[in-house]
Amino acid sequence: MVKRFLGTAIFGYFALFMVLTLLIGLRWNKERKAPEQPIAFSHEIHAGTLNLECLFCHESADKSYFAGVPTVQKCMECHRNVKTDTPEVQKLAKYWEDEEPVPWNRVHRIRVREFVYFTHKRHIKKDIQCEQCHGDLTAMAQVRAVSSLKMGWCVSCHLENEASVDCQICHK
Ligand code: HEC
Ligand code: HEC
Ligand code: HEC
Ligand code: HEC
Ligand code: HEC
Q: Is 123 near ligand 4, meaning CB less than 6 Å away?
């Protein structure tokens, strides 16, 4: 009787442990993996090789909470004439003809967003480079998150830069 109980308990303990490990692993992967995008857009080409400014496409990063993603029109300023014969650019042209936005998948999202106050503007105005938070996009063919976006990450940079760490600035 005791033996059976112990056996079950030990089995249960390991089963739970394995399920937890699996779940944590899955979540970690989901957060770190570069999500598939509807068009194979490459920062390595556009921000790297072509050397386009980040703010040229992410126009509201220095004006607003959100950095924003460029409109199809912005892409078509070049792709009406550039590489029009490739399948990926033809996908883009199709969104343009249909007057639909490209349904890009979000890569970065603070987990409890409604509970956290974050704005790009304040950070960009302070001359913090995109790279400090997002890594070197000029070398990424596909965007993936390099920062955890967790509270410890925000707070440790605030401490290093003598920015405020009062709870109320991030949790209004
Ligand atoms: C300033 C001009 C410019 C803008 C704006 C621009 N592109 Fe490009 N794009 C290029 C050029 C030039 C290339 C080709 C680079 C090379 O292969 O040498 C390219 C390459 C590409 C390719 C790869 C084509 C292939 O299959 O070889 C895709 C896909 C693409 N762009 C999508 C986009 C999307 C989506 C946007 C808008 C978010 C965009 N581009 C905005 C100039 C631009
Ligand atoms: C030609 C336009 C263009 C340029 C230039 C550009 N981006 Fe982007 N960016 C995009 C598009 C389109 C997406 C959405 C698709 C994707 O994630 O690849 C995007 C996505 C992102 C994301 C992920 C957003 C999310 O969903 O979390 C980050 C971060 C980013 N860009 C940063 C940068 C930085 C930093 C630079 C400058 C080094 C830059 N971008 C230059 C068009 C551009
Ligand atoms: C202080 C850190 C930090 C800096 C600097 C920063 N970002 Fe972000 N970025 C974030 C965080 C955090 C998120 C997720 C925000 C959310 O969940 O709403 C994000 C999200 C994004 C997104 C997707 C959502 C959106 O806001 O449109 C894009 C695109 C982006 N960043 C581009 C940029 C570009 C371009 C720069 C430089 C001009 C930049 N970021 C600088 C921290 C930063
Ligand atoms: C790379 C460093 C860095 C990271 C990462 C960072 N911050 Fe900041 N943040 C700063 C600096 C520096 C300031 C001070 C800006 C100023 O003085 O105008 C600041 C200012 C702020 C402010 C305004 C503070 C005030 O006094 O009103 C808020 C809100 C804020 N950050 C939220 C966040 C949140 C939320 C995150 C994480 C998702 C984050 N920050 C991540 C460097 C960072
Ligand atoms: C610089 C910004 C910043 C400051 C300062 C800050 N937080 Fe946070 N906090 C965050 C971010 C970002 C998250 C989301 C973390 C995540 O995704 O796990 C968070 C999450 C939390 C959560 C967890 C919410 C949940 O549902 O998991 C609690 C509780 C919390 N913060 C309390 C505090 C307290 C108390 C203080 C003051 C001592 C504080 N925070 C200061 C940025 C900040």
A: yes
If asked whether residues 121 and 155 sit together in one domain, one would say: yes
Task: Give the span between the Cα atoms of 77 and 56, in whole angstroms.
Answer: 12
156 lines ligand 4 (CB under 6 A): no
Assess whether the C-beta atom of 140 lies below 6 angstroms from ligand 4: no
CA 131 to mean position of chain CA atoms: 12
- pTM > 0.70: yes
Q: What is the pLDDT of residues 68-84, one digit of tens each?
A: 999 999 999 999 999 99
Give the count of domains, the chain: 2
114/150 same-domain check: yes
Query: What does the block give as tokens for 47?
Result: 């921000």
pLDDT at 121: 98
Residues 20 and 52 in one domain: no
